[in-house]
Specification:
Shape: globular
Structural class: mainly alpha
Number of domains: 1
Number of strands: 0
Strand content: under 5%
Number of helices: 12
Largest sheet: none
Length: about 290
Amino acid sequence: MFSPGVRYMLLATFFFALMNAAVKLLGHLPAIEIAFLRSVVSLILAYGIVRFNRIPLPGNNRKALFLRGLFGSSSLVLYFITLQHMPLASAVTLQYLSPIFTAIMGIFIVKEEVKPWQWVFFGISLLGVLLVQGFDNRIAPLYLILGIGSALFAGLAYNMIRQLKQTEHPLVITFYFPLVSLPITFLLLNGITWVMPQGTDWIILILIGTTAQIAQYFMTRSYQSDELSKVASLKYLGIVYALAFGYFIFGETFSMEAHVGMVVVLAGVILNIWYKHSREKLRMEEMRS
């Protein structure tokens, strides 16, 4: 029923949702520290998997691999900050501006076409994001800007993944993310006061690194398997997980207007997927005739 790219992104969205909830559970630790420790765990896992599969390093297009890691690291740090200073669903919804940035920059970076109707559906999803933000007064302007910045850097990172489709194994791309983010987050540690994790904090940190690595792998496979404008918007579905985790774990509630905004976001996603599926089906029928 679904293409491989769609299936991969659905899995990635689920594991990202687990990571988001775990990060919010560690609200007493600095976001930079969590990002650093997450990079440590992910790098160990990524290197072990690459070696186990006997995939050669350091890769072919090292410049693009580095840029993917740089953009992804910038997005990661900003996103962790917003997760700790916003309601979970609001932070996740704001991050969902990234598919719009992905599609827009994809026109110039990987030369992918976006159909007029897809812009309409992106606009619907963006309207939903604005509705959520407009009716949630718990979001400070500073964190709103940081959230938008995180989405922008994520869009750049996803385009780098697509650009590396022909030259790199997905596991190599996944490996470069923590490889680049580890030194970057280590340098950023100089600006904060280290808080030593206690007890179950270590288990949650390992969970963050593990789920992030799994999610990154499936997301990479998705972006390499299908068009950016089709699979990128599937990340919006993570809002369902965010609402559930936010309510049951953190006791977060939202106004009816904010819920309407989230429904609008999902409507834009579903319409975009339906449109792309319909066009592919029509193209296949034309090829057979």
